[in-house]
Specification:
With about 100 residues, the protein is an alpha/beta fold. The protein has 1 helix and 7 strands, in the order αβββββββ.
Length: about 100
């Protein structure tokens, strides 16, 4: 039950960032965003981060919009927000016994 409360509190923080009621901790700017839903690469967007979670991908408002946030320059990079690479090689780290 405690983990559910943690998830709810994280969700509430993320929603406060989206609504503009709380600033993000960091803003990733200047990169190209690969949209896995539309299969397009978009520019002019920022990724807002709160407590290590993606709160929002939105139109870039410039550095002055979030003066308290750490600005991360992603110029020249392509970002894929939310993408998880679940490919691992655990068998090389953990012993495999039959």
């Amino acid at each position: 039950m405690a983990s559910r409360r943690i998830e709810t509190s994280i969700l509430k923080k993320l929603l406060r960032v989206v609504k503009g009621a709380e600033p993000p901790d960091a803003v990733v700017r200047g990169g190209r965003i690969f949209n896995v839903f539309t299969n397009t690469i978009d520019e002019g967007l920022s990724v807002l981060i709160k407590d290590g979670w993606i709160a929002s991908v939105e139109k870039d408002r410039g550095e002055a919009s979030y003066p308290e946030a750490r600005m991360i320059d992603a110029g020249g990079l392509t970002l894929v927000p939310g993408f998880i690479d679940a490919h691992t090689h655990l068998d090389t780290v953990l012993p495999f016994e039959e």
